[in-house]
Amino acid sequence: MAYWLFKSEPDSWSWEQQKAAGAKGTEWTGVRNYQARNNMRAMKLGDRGFFYHSNEGKQIVGIVEVVTLAHPDSTSDNPTWECVDLKAVEDMPKPVTLAAAKENAKLSKMALTSNSRLSVQPVTDEEWAEVCRMGGLKG
DNA sequence: GCCAACGTTGGC
DNA sequence: GCCAACGTTGGC
């Protein structure tokens, strides 16, 4: 299984809204960046991701799961843009802030800290385990 | 609200 | 195909 990180501004799409979408999940729309789209194309059913609030909060607040493979983004006329569907799995018992991630040497190579502009990022097994530990989850 | 970093666009 | 100009993102 692969791990990912999804960024969203809570003003446009928040963790609360994601949870409200329930078990069938909802499209992760609005990605208009090739690198981010390619990451979504590489996703498989059951892959997991962190849900990160940018701007406001600047912290990882929950875990999501990929419930459909990449398909055309229904909010775009251009079939170039694709997205997956995500469902909320669980809250981070203790949200992991960007500041905390930056201070952790094990996370120094994480895309979140080194390429903050990328909205859908790969996460390594080691990074996943470390963030889960910081957040109070087993992983 | 500012601005640095990055990605995209478009003229040549 | 290069690169300057521009727009957007997101941390501060």
TrEMBL record:
<dbReference type="InterPro" id="IPR052181">
    <property type="entry name" value="5hmC_binding"/>
</dbReference>
<dbReference type="Pfam" id="PF01878">
    <property type="entry name" value="EVE"/>
</dbReference>
<feature type="domain" description="EVE">
    <location>
        <begin position="2"/>
        <end position="134"/>
    </location>
</feature>
<dbReference type="InterPro" id="IPR015947">
    <property type="entry name" value="PUA-like_sf"/>
</dbReference>
<protein>
    <submittedName>
        <fullName>EVE domain-containing protein</fullName>
    </submittedName>
</protein>
<dbReference type="InterPro" id="IPR047197">
    <property type="entry name" value="THYN1-like_EVE"/>
</dbReference>
<dbReference type="InterPro" id="IPR002740">
    <property type="entry name" value="EVE_domain"/>
</dbReference>
